[in-house]
Amino acid sequence: MAEKEVLGASIHEDLESRGSSFSIIDPIAERRLVRKCDIRVVPLLFLLYVLAYLDRINIGNAKIEGMPKQLKMKGNDYNVALLVFFVPYILLEVPSNLILKNLDPPKWLSGMMFICGILAMCMGFVKTKQQLIAVRILLGLFESGYYPGCLYLMSMYYKRDELLKRYTAFYCSTHIAGAFGGLLAFGFADLRGKGGLSAWEWIFVGEGLITIVVAIVAFFFIAPWPQDAKWLTAEEKELVVRRNEEGVRAAKMNRMSLRIFGRVARDWKIWCGVGMYMGVCTTGYSQSFFVPTFLSEFGYSPSEAQLHTIPLFAISLLLSLFIAWLSDRQKHRYGFIIFGILVSTIGYSTLLNQEHLSRSVKYMALFFLLSGAYTVLPITMCWMNNSLGGHYKRGAGMAFQIGFGNIGGIIGSNIYQSKESPRYRTGFAAGLGMLWFCGFCATILFFGLRRENRKRDQGLRDDRLKLPKEEQEVLGDDHPHFRYIL
């Protein structure tokens, strides 16, 4: 760890010593570096999160294969099994990202996934609903640091206006998990009776085993911090730092104290980010957990329902990638969030008035609902990252957003009650309301950031440049030279 800090410090000191004469970046070297990072950083994190998310949501596939009946689950027992995952998940995300700053990402991230694979397999051997709930709590505990850790790690390799495409590519792992999960569930369910396991038990055991194997392999290939990457030359490591700090070099926060942490926790932007993520997360999780149930109640058999999830998530993936490309190209976030909310609103409105609609129309409504929400999710996270300056603030802020924002997972776990089947009016209405709460928080963030940029352009924040040097070094995005992406 000491060697890593010395190397990182030496790169920064070297940059300072060269001054403005070293400010021009060779575009050919930059493109080569970005290609190398795209190959070495994102794909493996993507694959592991496919499996992590799959182990989290495959309970929805297991449900329609007879799990509730075999475990004697009644009433809201299924909802309880969903929500208990989020309690440790929410509480531990911030500490996890602060710890990660001082750890080796390959060991930390692959280790968590290895344990999660074991726990996923354990769900296939539970005999009571109480055992299922206990394993879900442990799954939330050990998975809490993976998602924010991956986003934190990626943010150290890319510039702010490059991140959304990579975040969306990473987040599309949830689309793949939703689509591929249905296919895997269809395949594993066909093993019913083999080895004394039922269809739903095979779903947990088979998918958990895949996670374990991939986590072991990933240990050797997950990207470390840039200054530790053996696949980067010294010049490329230096270039990563320069690119990452381009335009925001003064926006540092590379040490942490209780006072600085308190300032981070009081930042209004972070709580807008929490509200955005919580609002859209309610839809994201609830649909992942309940889409197989909706399809089953539309009249599809369990096998047909598993397969019909695939097109839903595939279309969502394509739209998300296109919107991410467009958003990065325009260097704009807010308008695309509102667009996604409007698309999802069409789906919600249709399902709130589904009494006399055909199965095909209701299925089409799910396309709108999922596509809009899954387009918004990565933008809310990337916009938050774009709005934070400094190593620690970025890590802590993203963990705050994802951790507390996952309260939306608790909400999404409880809004679809079995007693309201098959209309689920409360669930669809609550999901729509939370989605527009996301839009409300995004609107506050947009106008707040625009106002702050104008103040800085007018020199109204330059008084902060008179602060002692040690104070200026921990201003993060409060530094007057920092500008926000809208």
TrEMBL record:
GO cellular component, one term: membrane
Membrane topology according to the record: Multi-pass membrane protein
Gene3D superfamilies membership: MFS general substrate transporter like domains
Top-rank lineage group of the source organism: Eukaryota
Domain Major facilitator superfamily (MFS) profile per the UniProt entry, residue ranges: 41-456
Keyword Transport: yes
Alphabetical keyword list: Membrane, Transmembrane, Transmembrane helix, Transport
Record-annotated membrane-spanning stretches: 39-57, 78-96, 108-126, 133-155, 167-188, 200-223, 305-327, 334-351, 363-384, 396-416, 428-449
Keyword Membrane applies: yes
Main location: membrane
Intracellular or extracellular location(s): Membrane
An MF annotation (GO) of this entry: transmembrane transporter activity
Name assigned to this protein: MFS general substrate transporter
Source organism phylogeny: Eukaryota, Fungi, Dikarya, Ascomycota, Pezizomycotina
